[in-house]
Design brief:
heterodimer, A: alpha+beta, six-stranded antiparallel sheet, four-stranded antiparallel sheet, globular, B: mainly alpha, 6 helices
Chain lengths: 665, 153
């Protein structure tokens, strides 16, 4: 019964989304207050209905209702509860429903929060958001219905892909989805602004929190996915340039460019057309990513239940959305007139440079991802594009980006002096050079690459730290003054500095884990030991166990240093009989400066308990995840900036004025 | 992460076994040569797996490629010669770093072309803006009223 309720809710949401879209778009066009007033309630109702549908599907999973095909195919009665919940989005239909929920709820939130928007802009934003919902609801209902019943109902389910039975899965997709779907709001605002032929600083302020929510979630989602790959896949790698990883990186790059260019619109009322283009790019590339994953066009682990017919439909959706938005853009972008001028040396120029570099990076990732398809279609050749390509293109572009980042932060708006910026950055230059020199001495291998990476990371971290230090007058003012200034510094400035610093840390972490990694691969019998990076790993014993819905063998390894036992690692090899799949669970000794990572491999002839053992030592890898988390923190801090809570302007009026003055200094 | 699927495929063939890459028994005695072999293997695609490198894959063809790379190195080939030999036998599809040739020009030059185009566009944009007055146009009456409404709220 509840399953049918979910299905009805979804159908009803489809109808309500049509009303939302028609009343918003037509109402604004016809300047009909009655029609426009319908869009808000419709958006809220649609958000509530899709949420209800989602909860009903989750209920079917929790109750192990195997009469529902989706539950039968992806669940099992013996599965732990957390994976019954996470299993809802661990498959095609459920993940599409999650996508739709995010879309609908965001639309409802826009309707609830952004009540103060000019009526036609608000109606158009909700209308466009509704139109996207219509498209995806239709896709879900007609090709990927998660509520389909089976008769007769099977006794038990086929279980979820064991690789996905992991805490990482429970939270990685929701954040990733909130990220990529979150850009739909920026898209809707962008298209609505084109329909209004009007983009101004107020528009940029309204979009900013939504873009930030999306960017922050996407950063967290990608970081979690990367962490999951690190410990679950058992190769010790964190990023494989897999098409699907790239599909999430492309909107991230576009979203990052959007955040930076929107700042120019907000502060200086210029760079408008480009900003709209980025808003369109961030979301359409997200949809394209969904298409790539779902169609199985590019083979990947994420292509669960891929189906070419669904892929074709998604491609049509994607083409219509992108084509429509770009046509509108071509018609209207010229109507967007720039406001204030600026000098060639200025923050504005620095942010333009940031966008040019991010676009080149975005292009590289996109062309690399899709090149195998182009080459096959146009030349009939099968080519591969892998990590060696991306590394060669991305590293030089990232170096330029890193240099520009810290410099840009020292350039004030309107008119700046390169010489003054360079003078303020003297400390950063000194520390960076010192760090590179230290790297030269300390790095045992790949000295040039190590110096480059460490140099970039330290330069970015120092640039961010110096930005805050200079604004607070640390070193020049008394403690009271510094505290007062710290309180007065806009949260968005704190957020920017924190996020930049996070990227710097992340780059240092990448150097540690890719350049300075040590690896041992040995056949080991219980009692034997290997040395890695000054540690001794002793293979002590092997145990077999039956747990919940899988069987496992657990190896115990003692970690010792200088003959003293300092810890124990227990990697596992699991076998999921229902899904007929094996997984490896790496054991990782996490420490702030280094990880020791052990994977239990295949049996070998050397003895009944002889196994191939892979051990890694990853220095500074914590900075990689830590850096990503710091970037997320930057996004969160920036989100709390009171100046963007336009919904409650009265209380924040005075600080907002001074905040602007500080930022414009 | 497509290697996971590949791993599943490999498992189906080999029975229950987890993935492992370089088999200890395959290793070259000379550590420098072995290191080169590892680096080259990382630039080669396991042909039957989805996106996995030869260095990581457990599939028989990956193992054959690892052996081929090591044999070639032991025979005195340099890195380029090894890659050419692999491409000769298995096609360019095996190379994770696409060749720099006319066909792949867009791939290799494209990003820098975008960078150059972007730089050109940026210069034009910045020049055009430098000519404008620094202050934006004054508020319209409608905007003034909206500002007042927000301020009074």
């Amino acid at each position: 019964m509840t399953v049918e309720l979910g299905h009805y809710a979804l159908v009803l949401a489809f109808v309500v989304a049509i009303v939302q879209s028609a009343s918003g778009l037509w109402g604004a066009h016809a300047r009909s207050p009655h029609a426009m007033s319908l869009a808000g309630p419709a958006a809220i109702a649609q958000g509530a209905l899709v949420t209800l549908a989602f909860l009903m599907l989750m209920n079917a999973y929790l109750a192990s209702d195997f009469s529902v095909a989706n539950v039968y195919n992806n669940s099992h009665s013996a599965k732990p509860v957390i994976y019954k919940i996470a299993g809802v989005w661990g498959n095609h239909e459920g993940s599409m429903l999650l996508w739709i929920v995010m879309l609908g709820v965001l639309g409802g939130l826009v309707a609830t929060v952004d009540r103060h928007l000019p009526p036609t802009l608000r109606a158009r934003v909700l209308g466009v958001q509704g139109l996207i919902s219509v498209a995806f609801l239709a896709f879900c209902l007609f090709t990927s219905n998660p509520f389909e019943r089976m008769d007769p109902a099977p006794v038990d389910g086929r279980d979820l892909n064991p690789l996905l039975q992991d805490p990482g899965l429970a939270f990685h997709p929701p954040f990733l989805y909130l990220g990529i779907v979150g850009f739909s709001v920026a898209f809707s605002f962008g298209v609505a602004a084109l329909l209004e032929s009007r983009v101004d600083p107020a528009w940029a302020r309204w979009v900013r929190p939504w873009t930030l929510v999306a960017w922050t979630s996407l950063t967290l989602g990608i970081g979690m996915g990367s962490w999951w790959a690190y410990y679950e896949l058992g190769w010790g790698g964190f990023w494989f340039w897999d098409p699907v990883e790239n599909a999430s990186l492309i909107p991230w790059l576009a979203g990052t460019a959007l955040l930076h260019s929107a700042a120019v619109v907000e502060k200086r009322d210029t760079l408008k057309a480009w900003t709209i283009l980025m808003a369109i790019a961030a979301f359409t590339s997200s949809v394209l990513g969904t298409f790539v994953v779902r169609s199985g066009l590019l083979t990947s682990v994420h292509a669960f239940a891929n189906d070419p017919a669904r892929g074709t439909l998604l491609l049509i959706l994607c083409v219509l959305m992108t084509g429509g938005a770009l046509t509108l853009y071509a018609l209207r972008a010229n109507a967007l007139k720039p406001g204030g001028g600026f000098h060639a040396t200025s923050r504005e120029t620095a942010l333009v440079v940031n966008n040019v570099l991010l676009s080149a990076l975005l292009f590289a990732v996109a062309i690399g991802t899709f090149w195998p398809i182009f080459a096959e279609v146009f030349f009939g050749d099968r080519v591969s594009v892998g990590a060696p390509y991306y590394n060669r293109i991305a590293v030089p572009l990232t170096v330029l980006l890193a240099i520009a980042m810290s410099f840009g932060m020292q350039l004030p708006w309107k008119r700046a002096s390169l010489r003054a910026a360079a003078r303020r950055l003297r400390a950063a230059v000194a520390v960076t050079v010192a760090a590179m020199a230290a790297t030269f001495w300390l790095a045992g291998k790949a000295k040039a690459l190590s110096m480059l990476g460490v140099g970039m990371g330290v330069w970015i971290v120092m640039g961010a730290a110096l930005d805050v230090a200079l604004r607070l007058k640390i070193g020049a003012a008394g403690p009271g003054e510094i505290l007062r200034r710290a309180g007065g510094l806009p949260r968005s400035a704190w957020g920017a500095a924190i996020a930049h610093g996070g990227l710097g840390l992340l780059i240092i972490g990448i150097v540690g884990t890719t350049v300075w990694v040590s690896e041992r691969v040995e056949v080991m019998r219980p009692g034997e030991a290997v040395e890695i990076a000054g540690y001794t790993l002793t293979y002590e014993k092997l145990e077999q166990r039956e747990v919940a819905n899988y069987q496992t063998e657990i190896g115990t390894f003692a970690v010792s240093r200088d003959g003293r036992r300092i810890g124990e690692l227990t990697p596992e090899r699991r076998w999921y009989p229902v899904a007929e799949m094996a997984t490896t669970e790496a054991a990782i000794r996490l420490r702030p400066l280094e990880d020791i990572y052990v994977v239990l491999g295949d049996p070998r002839d050397a003895g009944p308990e002889a196994r191939v053992v892979r051990a890694y030592h990853h220095p500074l890898v914590s900075l990689l995840w830590g850096g990503a988390l710091v970037m997320v923190l930057g996004g969160v801090v920036s989100l709390t900036d009171g100046r963007y809570r336009v919904g409650a302007p009265a209380r924040k009026r005075a600080p907002a004025a001074t905040g602007d003055a500080v930022a414009a200094e | 992460m497509s290697r996971v699927r590949a791993m599943a495929a490999a498992l189906a063939v080999l029975g229950a076994a987890s993935a492992h890459a370089v088999d200890p028994e395959d290793r070259l005695p000379d550590p420098a040569q072995e290191a080169r072999a590892r680096e080259i293997s990382k630039d080669l695609r396991c042909l039957v797996c989805a996106g996995q490198t030869v260095d990581e894959s457990n599939a028989p063809v990956a193992r054959a490629l690892r052996k081929m790379v090591r044999d070639r190195i032991a025979a005195g080939d340099d890195d380029e010669e090894v890659l050419d030999a692999v491409a000769e036998r298995y096609g360019d599809y095996a190379l994770l770093k696409p060749r720099f040739n006319a066909e792949n020009l867009v791939l290799w030059v494209g990003p820098f072309l975008v960078l150059a185009l972007g730089a050109w566009g940026a210069v034009r944009f910045v020049r055009a803006n430098a000519a404008l007055p620094a202050e934006p146009a004054p508020l319209t009456d409608e905007e003034r009223q909206r500002l007042k409404d927000i301020a009074d709220a």
